[in-house]
Amino acid sequence: MGLGRGLYVWAAAAFCAAFFLPIINGSNQAIWQTKVAPDVQGRVFATRRLIAQIAAPVAMLLAGPLADRVFEPAMRSESALANLFDGFVGTGPGAGMSLMFVFAGALGALSGLGGYAFSAVRNAEDLLPDHDHDRALVED
Fold first, then answer.
1. What is the pTM of this model?
2. Angstrom distance (rounded) from CA 93 to CA 81
3. From CA 90, how far away is CA 71, in angstroms rounded?
4. Going residue by residue through the chain (140 aa), what tens digit of pLDDT does each one get?
């Protein structure tokens, strides 16, 4: 989205996010429900959701000052940052925000690839035992 300079690119990027995120989240949730025993799923899922959602307000608190004081001024001057990225995001108004989108996307991609690089994360579905659904039903 940060590399686009027009409505059609932004719409395509938003569509891709809206299309793939439910697939990713659904797959993730299926693994968690298979691996976590039903009697503790509420606590585990609440904690997991808290950790995941705490990033949004932190990001919002950081994004404004970073845009206003770091990225936008840097992309409007003859700084090293502007010289390095002006071919990708330009140097006019909004270029700093575009660069922030590019950095956020790159960090997200790197974290996904980083998780894939570690076999313990990549093979978590096979390495972690499933909760014993039949035994959990008998104990209830």
1. 0.75
2. 15
3. 12
4. 888 778 898 899 999 989 999 998 998 899 999 999 999 999 999 999 999 899 899 999 999 999 999 999 988 888 888 888 888 888 888 888 889 999 998 998 999 899 889 998 889 888 889 987 656 555 55
Cα gap 37→129, rounded to integer Å = 10
Cα→Cα distances 139→34, 39, 87, 116, 133, Å:
18, 10, 63, 37, 10
Residue 75 CB burial class (10 angstroms; 0-12, 13-18, ≥19): buried
Shortest CA distance to 135 belongs to which of 71, 39, 65, 50?
39
Measured from the Cβ of residue 89, the count of other Cβ atoms closer than 10 Å reads: 23
Domain regions of the chain by residue span: 7-139
Q: How far apart are CA 107 and CA 63, in angstroms?
A: 15
Q: How many whole angstroms separate alpha carbon 45 and alpha carbon 53? A: 12
Listed in order, strand segments (DSSP E) in the chain are none
How many Å separate Cα 139 from the centre of its chain? 38
